[in-house]
Amino acid sequence: MDNKAGPSGSKSTSSSRKKRRQSDDYESDYSDEDVYSQRADEDSSSSEDSSSCGSDDSIFDTRLKQKTTSRVPPAQPSRSSAPKTTSHIPLAQPSRSPASKTVSCVPPPQPSSSSASKRGLCESDGRAIIQCKRLRPSFRDGPTRNNSTQSLKLPDLNSSSASKSAPRLLEFDGDGSFEFNSEIDCRPTSPNIVQDYGDFLPDIPINPTSSTPSVSLLRSDAITPNLSPERDDVSPSIMAVRRSGSRTPDLPDDFYLSPNNSPSGQGATTTWSSDPSSMKSLEFTKEQELLVPPPTDPYEAFRLMIDDELLDLIVRETNANAIRVGNAQNVKQNSRIKSWKDLTKEELLTFLGLLLHTGTIRLNRLSDYWKRHYLFNIPCFGQFMSRNRFLLILRCLHFTSVTSEEDRLNKIRPFMDHFNNKMKTIYCPGKELSLDESMVLWRGRLLFRQYIKNKRHKYGIKLYVLAEPDGTVLKFQVYASANDETSGQGHSSKIVFKLLEERLDCGHHVYMDNYYNSYGLAVKLLDRQTYCTGTLRKNRKDNPVEIGSVSLEKGENKSLFLNGVHVGKWRDKRYVLYISTEHGSEMMETTSKRGSIVVKPMAIVHYNNFMSGVDLQDQMLAYYPVQRKTLRWYKKLFVHMLQMSLTNALHLYNTFSANDKLNLYDFRMKILEKLLPDPNDVNRRNVLKVKHELTKIEKTRTRVKTVGRVTKQTIEVVRKECKGCKSQKKRVQTIYECKQCEGSPGFCTKCFCLAHS
């Protein structure tokens, strides 16, 4: 640079020059080679520096003056032609020491050759400014002169971007010691600092008047990312030490950190280790059992879930809703709802039986079940209930008369609470539990409709389900968006604790996918005596840094442990990141679908075995679907919960009943036979209850008969056609009837005995 002595002739600068100076703020004129070559000259001429530079105060005076003040040290007699340069090694983030006054400097704009003289950056004697890495003055506590301790703030090479370097502090003391002042490492060193650490220390101004120059490097408590070995702005000698792995006794331990084990900003990531000794052992204090007497038949198991309390609630609310619907203003006078008859519990059970039977026999429309067409003729539906009555009950089906604007699930809340409370009352599950989402298909407009691309029903109402590995649903929660009690920040953790609130502190083991799992949740569950295992997302908070960057061969596993939590990474066809608080890094053999033996981590093997409870339950519901299109979303949820109750009854029956196990189809048919008994058997039982007698018909009529010229009037009995002979396509008139039978049909003596035997 060509710098001229004296003040600038012009006080104004153009905007383009200002922008050019600002863009050069953090650029350097010298390479690392130039810095290290000139540093050797500085070290050899320290005695000459003492005669030319004066005291420490004079050094800082030249660096901390205002823009209009020259910043060139006095001429040096022996090496006046060689300019001095200063290079700085980045240190850890400093912490301000209250005992020392500091002056911080950041890199200043780099003036061009033409603008240097205009800005007056030169000495009064006309000598040129020394070319060096420039520092922009930034006064925190004001300019400090004649202090025993002064600090420089230097750019940070550890930061991720060279253009956004964080400042570091260099502190100069007069006690003749070089040390790292931090809570992590604070070690005294020898006074011959330049000779001992010439390859590791920055070119900092040394007090020429002191026989024992000293430097104190302050490191803050803040943790910064590790220095990457690929950076271009790192000293070659430093990188040689890092790559070689050799250690200098007086340097801090974290100086040699590699990128894989570099500390993170999260507190949990700094102390992960491969030692599994922190894993905890919990005992399962419960026992899988049925808290009520075991059912003796499938219908009794079904009535464990659908009890009289729930039926009475539905009957009461449905009748009340039918009155409200009938009294609406837009209902016509000749509408069917006007002739509503109160629903009874027996009729409701028949309605539920017909509803479940629509899943056994699939037809596109509900009205097709009552058609008399030869392609649709299914007489069983018409024998139990008329089509109009069935559709009318379905229209008025209701569960609560209470309205609430805050609770979006108010219309189905009583049935949900009854299901969850019933399972808590009658059943105590085993150790292994699974937690996952389930979807109820809904394509209509709904405020809390969700989309999950991996589900069979992508659009619909989302359920969070806690289940056993065999598909028994223990508890479920409907996601109702913003107004839900579990909504907001930490939603996934809130859902887990909401579903497990009755199962904590018992030693259960919950298997979850990566939507829920995190280090923080695992620690909280472990504090409540509950294990958790499942897959883990790589961007979760508090994940160890090394586990995300490690490279593995196929079949290899990497495990880290902290506070009883195991985070592992295993590679099969792709990388699998998992977390567990019970299983360690043990590998075990398992058989794949094709019959081959594969070695996998124990946590992944158990996860595959116990995680599929919710999916199994969805699979069983899909075999005999009962859902129909409707304009009321809560009715679709009611049908879904009715099917869940039936599958739960199947699992409880097969687990605790002394009878033989049944599959789902046979179990359903046993229940339907109880809900929809054979009409012929019903009539036969009713016939046997009343004593039937064959009596002569009492109804008579007068008949006029003319014989020749004589007219006679006779009284005759009005005969009836025999019911038994008519069924055999015979026309027989009889004078006898059975008044105990419905309609008082006529019978001949033979048919009467056959019908009433």
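^ that was protein a. below is b, sequence first then the tokens
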Amino acid sequence: MAGFLSRFFDKLKSWIAWSWTYLWAVWFILVMFVIYILRGPLKLTSMFLNTLTPKFYVALTGTSSLISGLILIFEWWYFKKYGTSFIEQVSLNHISPLLCGSDNTPETTTPTNTTQQQTIPDCKLWRNPLNLFRGSEYQRFQWATNKEPLTYYDMNLSAQDHQTFFTCEADAGKAEYEIMQMAWRERNPQARIKAAHEALEKNPECVPALILLAEEETTTILDSEKFLKQAYKIVEGNYKKTIPSQHMTPQQESVHRRDNNLVVYIKRRLAMCSRKLGKIKETIKMMKDLLKEFPMMNFNIHENLIECLLEAQLYSEVQTLLAKYDDISLPKSATICYTAALLKARAVADKFSPDIASKRGLSTAEMTAVEAIHRAVEFNPHVPKYLLEMKSLILPPEHVLKRGDSEALAYAFFHINHWKRVEGALNLLHCTWEGTFRMIPYPLEKGHLFYPYPTCTEATDRELLPTFHEVSVYPKKELPFFILFTAGLCSFTALLALLTHQYPEPMGVVVRTMLSWLYLPLSYILEKLEAILPANLLHQLSRI
């Protein structure tokens, strides 16, 4: 509240200074002239207001309250939808340039914008390494709740991924691949499945069609695993055939790269099937083999392996993996940061007590754990509310925005049980995570350990996440000044209307007294003007 008041008074000072600098002389002359011209009507107006009944004042204040209430409702709706005040936006974008001129605007705003572009990274979307199967998981949720778990924007991104990774230039003109190109663009799941079957009729060894059926047509993980094994058997043979000739021509190199992508994708999905079927040791072996065989593939397979190692409670291996991937030169993720915090918390969480810690202070190990939690919360501030069950979880999307609500959902959905398994870890998180925000400067001009928090996360997460989910927003947007102003105006006029209706005579006396007070300085100024200025000059001006 103090920060809001200080910013409000700073804006108010700047507005007053601007108005005083540019308009004080003009306004003074105009007001004096209008007062002189209207000195007769002003007297008549004061006499007219003295004869009004209390019902008029009730109607006046009630109408004012109604109008300001309607403005308040519109401002609130506009703020909820677009995140800004309509009156403020119109004032800054349309009225202010007309009054101030727009010549200096680019010169003052360009350096700031270029600085932000240099320091703040763009919002890049990443494939969720732990994404679920559409047929056997997302579709079952839809049958149970009659709600769409995936947005069209998210599914369209997946279609683009499949077109990029599962096809190459050599596939142009092949009937089955042309059908699959159309299948990925289809919005209706049944149309996609039908197109995949048509592609298999053209070519029984069309691997992308088998992948689509494994992802969308099957209703159990076992059925998905059967389709994926069939696809893997085909693509493994094709991949081995392309290894000797991969460097001969650009076309053969693109075929080899396509088969390489298919091998990695199918093998990881097979490992995820094993993970869902409870075959943890087999899953860990498959993930390690993938990282060893394809170390340069940027599919974030290490995050799948971290989740499997945590499920097997192989914390020493998790620490070894983090030592490799939690590097300053590598992109971070919620999985990396929060897993590092979990391992640090595991060493002290079972004995941690906030009462004892407040008396004796934090030990070195406890301080290390708290700092790791603060680091994780700064990277993605949305995760703790899901881990602490302050917000309800939904099925994660197929793509995530790092540091956004979508990534927080994806992480918490798969890792909340690992935090619950470590005794006292959630208690330590509950006691310490909010302290992170005292370390981060406001309004986020610069970050503490990472880049400043990006401003594009809310809009992107709203595209990625279904409408029935309430998107978590950070930092919380303060209510614009005009919403608070209209709310106060509406409340004040409504109170006046109520008081005038209940106590008409006293309120009438108060209004007449206030009007007489307002008229006193005006009459004083008029008398001074008549005494100073010549009568014929004022007469000629009044005629003009």
